[in-house]
Automatic annotation (TrEMBL):
EC number(s) on file: 2.7.2.8
Gene that encodes the chain: argB
Catalytic reaction list: N-acetyl-L-glutamate + ATP = N-acetyl-L-glutamyl 5-phosphate + ADP
Family from the record: Belongs to the acetylglutamate kinase family. ArgB subfamily.
Superkingdom as given in the UniProt entry: Bacteria
Principal location listed in the UniProt entry: cytoplasm
InterPro entries xrefs: AceGlu_kinase-like_sf, AcgluKinase_fam, ArgB, Asp/Glu/Uridylate_kinase
Primary enzyme class: transferase
Protein name, UniProt field: Acetylglutamate kinase
Length: 267
């Protein structure tokens, strides 16, 4: 079984077309890949926080999370966004089951940073893969919202990319980060282009140079971390262009493939 963990980013979410979901359903029906969805929803969380007049800010692409913010994060991700994705997959002719990382102890976390500067932001230390495997065997597409819990029952807000990489790592699968952009963009001589491949060393430099910023930082960091820990392949592509996902599963070069330095061929 080849697990394909598809991260659906919140920035593209509201504009994702019917054909994006149809593509996922057909990937599953085809039988070569087992799709698992992990989603985000950052812009929707920020919208509701704004309406509730709760201030929010980000540090290196991660939302500083108080208990009050956590309530909104859980409501938006595990309530609204998760169920919308399930509905879309069902409308596209698939069977899908939504769950939060908290359900069944699916995602176990510890604080992301020991001094709690980010508040209740977690990093994942365990994924209960059996829950995912069982649902997949029953023919469901698992749809996971990135909330997690520690052994005491404390909730954590997990960045969607971090959660997707942890799930891909635990399943020893492939990671496909679908966002609103076709990969890592760089600008040279006034012309911008998307890198076809980026090594961990290149990425480190692009972060230092301020080329990779904001929400792209957790994507590249999670992908590199995942590749170090058993993820077979990691790619960032544009979810707003469903052909990119189709092309990816067909083995074509698409988006930006993230690689570790030692994988680079110097032919
Ligand atoms: N070098 C870069 N290449 C591409 N996108 C970048 C880069 N640096 C920052 N970004 C930003 O990262 C965004 C994707 O992150 P984010 O908005 O968090 O997406 P998602 O909701 O899919 O997780 C892009 O839309 C872009 O604005
Ligand atoms: C810790 C942290 O930053 N959590 C994210 C969770 C949602 C997310 O990751 O959404 P995107 O994939 O759309 O960015 C947040 O609160 O926005």
């Amino acid at each position: 079984m080849k697990y394909l963990v598809i991260k659906c980013g919140g920035s593209a979410f509201q504009e994702l077309s019917e054909s994006f979901y149809k593509t996922i359903v057909s990937i599953q029906k085809n039988g070569q890949w087992v799709p698992v969805i992990v989603h985000g929803g950052g812009p929707m969380i920020s919208n509701l926080l704004d309406k509730l007049q709760i201030e929010t800010h980000f540090h290196q692409g991660l939302r500083v999370t108080t208990e009050e913010v956590l309530d909104v994060v859980e409501m938006v991700l595990s309530g609204s966004v998760n169920k919308q994705i399930v509905r879309q997959l069902v409308s596209a002719g698939g069977q899908a089951v939504g769950m939060s990382g908290i359900d069944g102890g699916l995602l176990e976390a510890i604080p992301n940073d020991p001094d709690h500067t980010l508040g209740f932001v977690g990093k994942i230390v365990h994924v209960e893969t059996e829950l995912i495997e069982h649902q997949a065997k029953l023919g469901y597409i698992p749809v996971i919202s990135p909330l997690a819990m520690d052994y005491k029952g404390q909730r954590y807000n997990i960045n969607g990319d971090t959660a997707a990489a942890a799930v891909a790592q635990a399943l020893k699968g492939y990671l496909c980060i679908a966002s609103d952009i076709s990969g890592i963009q760089v600008t040279a001589n006034g012309t911008s282009s998307v890198l076809r491949e980026a090594t961990s060393a290149q990425i480190e430099q692009l972060i230092i140079d301020g080329v990779i910023t904001g929400g792209m930082i957790p994507k590249v960091k999670s992908a590199i971390d995942g590749l170090h820990n058993g993820v077979k392949e990691a790619v960032i592509l544009n979810g707003l262009e469903p052909d990119q996902l189709t092309a990816y599963v067909a083995g074509k070069t698409v988006g930006t493939k993230i690689t570790l330095n030692e994988e680079v061929s110097h032919a």
